[in-house]
Amino acid sequence: MKLSNKTVDRIATAVFYFFAFLIIVLLAGLIGFILFRGIGHLSFDFLTSPPETFKTGGGIGPQLFNSLFLLVLTMLITVPLGIGAGIYMAEYSKPGKFTDFIRLVVEVLSSFPSIVVGLFGLLVFVNYFDLEFSLLAGALALTVFNLPLMVRITEQGIRGVPREQKEAGLALGLTRWKTITKVMLPVALPTILTGTILAAGRVFGEAAALLFTAGMSSPRLDFTDWNPFSPVSPLNPLRPAETLAVHIWKINSEGIAPDAAQIAAGASAVLIITVLLFNLGSRWLGRYLYRKLTASR
Amino acid sequence: MTSIMEIERLNLHYGEFHALKNMKLDIPKQTVTAFIGPSGCGKSTFLRTLNRMNDLVPGVQIDGSVKLDGQDIYSDDTDVETLRKRVGMVFQQPNPFPKSIFDNVAYGPRLHGIKDKARLNEIVERSLRGASLWEEVKDLLNKSALSLSGGQQQRLCIARALAVEPDVLLMDEATSALDPISTLKIEELVRELKKDYTIVMVTHNMHQAARVSDRTAFFLNGELVETDDTEKLFSNPVDSRTEDYITGRFG
Predict the structure, then answer these.
(1) Which of B111, B142, B165, B173 to mutate to test the interface with A (most CBs of A within 10 A)?
(2) Domain B3-246 grouped into CATH 3.30.43.10
(3) What's B144's DSSP letter?
(4) In which domain, by residue range, is A280 found?
(5) Is B143–A295 a contact, with Cβ atoms under 8 angstroms apart?
(6) Of A94, A167, A174, which is closest to B91 when you measure between CB atoms?
(7) What tens digit of pLDDT does each residue of B14-55 get?
(8) Total structural domains in chain A?
(9) Distance CA A59, CA A45 (A)
């Protein structure tokens, strides 16, 4: 039997709708499940108090702080490097073997399993450079992990600027540097920013690369001591720091507090809510900046 | 009449392709010179050698001399940025920056170091008046340039170019993306502008060249076939190829 084109078309349409539906159901189910299990456990106390090893009632305060602080540290390193390299790739590199090689390296780097990046961090940053388990070592490992994404996003953003805009800048007698910074970067900024926040979401949720770099424990932190050189200060970048994602993994695998399962569920909910906020925030900020920078209503 | 730009023995290659062949042209001060010819004849490429915009294209090689007020713009001691300030450009597609009308015009002067608000206001008003746009936008200076019509955007681009006080203004098919009424406005504007500036325009529209230019150069297949006073070139061309083109036998 031969099906008419129209029938084939209808079947194909139905199949694609089904796939789209499947993905939505999968996502909704996953998020719903995690939130359903964890949200009852959320409270101000849970978000701010330190964890307990043997008793119930422990919180995730230091872990949450560590995750955010590590995020800031990583971005401080990743963003300038990534934007610089991205501008080079988009505007200065000449097509040829060398540029192709850089691109290949960036691609390979971005497909590295994060556990391997973690081991690399252990060998190079923790041991060789003697940073020990520290926020800084973790931030450097995550930089290795995120730099390719950042470079690619910047390059795409800059390349996406219409040629007419670039020529308009140059024709006004602007130098290449000023054309890039004052004409092209503002146009590319929403793209770059959206990508940066997505990268931030990855940093926030990353666990494997941090096990051997930022470590799996935190010292007792004194949240009244803001001197970054003091060993108990939360701001000290050379102290070990267990992040939220690592904490979830640890509690699930070796937690002995009686309420370990609830704590893991609550922490997972916090993690996923934060990542969702990053994603929504990046969209909103991208749109806002675009409107603001282009003065369009 | 004194020439502001003198081009001699100009050759341009894109890799193997010989795009401009041994061209010679004088551009007299405060006149409108029009370049006509079929697509791909080299007229836009030639225009872009006059402010060195071809430098951006990889694989381009340029020989010969292009002089602005007697100075070779391709010599080593030429500062490209200074050159482009003196030889401004308006493109085929209106390309305002995605910013306010005021910021578009103030862009060049600001980045060339003018900070004083009063002076910027004065430059913006003068440039917008120069581009016959002031009356239409004087109450909308903080609105996005993208909210203007295509014709207004193109006049804004002219104002933006005028704001850095060029001597020469290059127009690369500046009306080809516009409707007839906007085109007429820009043609009127060009006739106004030649009192203060030297204008070189590429046009695909012979009638436009006849309407607004003083001198016309006819390009064909990378050669500059004939240059003459516009009236003479259109009524009594010397080269038979020019005659074939302007009488519509090809192109």
Answers:
(1) B111
(2) no
(3) B
(4) 42-294
(5) yes
(6) A167
(7) 988 999 999 999 999 999 999 999 988 899 999 999 999 988
(8) 1
(9) 7
